[in-house]
Design brief:
The complex is a heterodimer of chains A (158) and B (118).
Chain A: H1 3-15, H2 20-41, H3 49-110, H4 118-157
Helix pairs in contact in A: 1-2, 1-3, 2-3, 3-4
Chain B: H1 12-21, E1 26-27, H2 28-38, H3 47-59, E2 63-70, E3 78-84, H4 86-108, H5 114-117
Antiparallel strand pairs in B: 1-3, 2-3
Helix pairs in contact in B: 1-2
The chains are: A mainly alpha (158), B alpha+beta (118).
Keywords (chain A): Membrane, Transmembrane, Transmembrane helix
Protein name (chain A): DUF2975 domain-containing protein
Transmembrane segments (chain A): 87-109, 121-141
Chain lengths: 158, 118
C-alpha cells in the first residue's frame, strides 16, 4: 500500500468523527479534496509532505470539534425550548382547570337564586377554550422540539 | 439557523469564498485553489475550514449547491459545484462597501503608506 492510499484511508477514518448529517453531506467531497491536495503535493514527497499532511489532519480535526460544538449548542437550545413549551402547556391546563372549577362553583352557588350568570360564565368559557387551545399548541410545539432535540442528540452520538 | 451573519463583517474565509464564487460556480478544491491564488498565498484554507464555511453559508442562503459535474481539468469524478445566490451577491456588495469606507477613512487620515496607496 503506497503512502497516498494509506493517508486517504486514515483521512476517511478521521471524517467518520464528524456529526452524521455533516458527514453524509460533505465527507465524499472532503475526501475528494484531500485526494486532490495530495495529488498536487505528490511531487514534493519527503520535502515538507509530512508537515502538509499533518496540517490537513490537524485542520480537519479542528473542524470536527467546531461542528460537534455547534451541534451541542443546538441540542442545548432545543432542550431549553422543550422545557419552555412544557411549562406553557401545564400552565395553560392549570388555568383552564381553575376556570372550569370557577364556572362550576358559580353555577352551583347561583342555582335556585334565579340570578343571571351568563355575563360571568360566557367570558370564563371563552378563556377556558383559549387555555385548552394554548395547551394543545404548546403540546404540539413541545413534541416537535423534542423530536428536534432527539435528532440533535442522534447527531451528537453519530 | 446558521451562525453566519449576513449583516455584519464577514469572516475572511466567507469573504474569500463569496469573492471566488461571484464570477463562476466552483467545486471545493477549485474554491480552495482560487482563494489561494486571489490572496497571493496569504489565505490558506484546509478542507475543515472550507466545508465548515460552506455548510454555514448554504444554511444562511449565501451560496447554493449546484449539480454534480465533471471537472475536465482534474479527473472523471463527478463533483458538487457551488454557486453564489442573490443574497450572497448582496452580502458581498455590502461587505466591499464597508471595506471601501474603511479605506476612505484610512486615506483621509493618511494612514496608508505611500507605496501601498500609489
Amino acid at each position: 500500500m503506497d503512502g497516498q492510499t494509506r493517508y486517504r484511508r486514515w483521512y476517511r477514518r478521521l471524517l467518520g468523527l464528524y456529526p452524521r448529517p455533516y458527514r453524509e453531506r460533505f465527507a465524499d467531497s472532503m475526501e475528494q479534496t484531500f485526494t486532490d491536495l495530495c495529488r498536487e503535493r505528490a511531487g514534493t514527497e519527503g520535502r515538507g509532505h509530512g508537515a502538509f499532511i499533518l496540517w490537513i489532519f490537524t485542520e480537519t480535526f479542528a473542524g470536527i470539534i467546531r461542528e460537534r460544538a455547534t451541534d451541542l449548542a443546538r441540542w442545548t437550545m432545543a432542550r431549553k425550548a422543550t422545557n419552555v413549551f412544557r411549562i406553557v402547556k401545564y400552565l395553560a391546563l392549570a388555568i383552564g382547570g381553575l376556570l372550569v372549577a370557577g364556572i362550576a362553583t358559580v353555577m352551583v352557588l347561583a342555582r335556585g337564586t334565579g340570578e343571571d350568570i351568563t355575563g360571568v360564565v360566557a367570558p370564563a368559557l371563552l378563556l377556558t377554550l383559549l387555555s385548552v387551545v394554548a395547551a394543545a399548541v404548546a403540546a404540539i410545539l413541545q413534541g416537535a422540539s423534542d423530536r428536534r432535540r432527539h435528532s440533535a442528540g442522534d447527531d451528537l452520538a453519530g | 439557523m446558521a451562525s453566519t451573519r449576513t449583516d455584519g463583517p464577514l469572516t475572511p474565509a466567507v469573504l474569500h469564498i463569496l469573492l471566488v464564487l461571484s464570477t463562476q460556480e466552483r467545486h471545493g478544491y477549485g474554491i480552495m485553489k482560487q482563494v489561494e491564488s486571489d490572496s497571493e498565498g496569504k489565505v490558506r484554507m484546509g478542507p475543515g475550514t472550507l466545508y465548515g464555511s460552506i455548510r454555514r453559508m448554504t444554511e444562511a442562503g449565501l451560496i447554493r449547491e449546484s449539480d454534480k459535474k465533471i471537472d475536465p481539468n482534474l479527473d472523471d469524478e463527478r463533483r458538487v459545484y457551488y454557486g453564489i445566490t442573490a443574497l450572497g451577491q448582496q452580502t458581498l456588495a455590502a461587505e466591499l462597501q464597508r471595506y471601501r469606507q474603511v479605506v476612505a477613512v484610512a486615506h483621509e487620515r493618511s494612514l496608508i503608506p505611500k507605496a501601498m496607496g500609489a
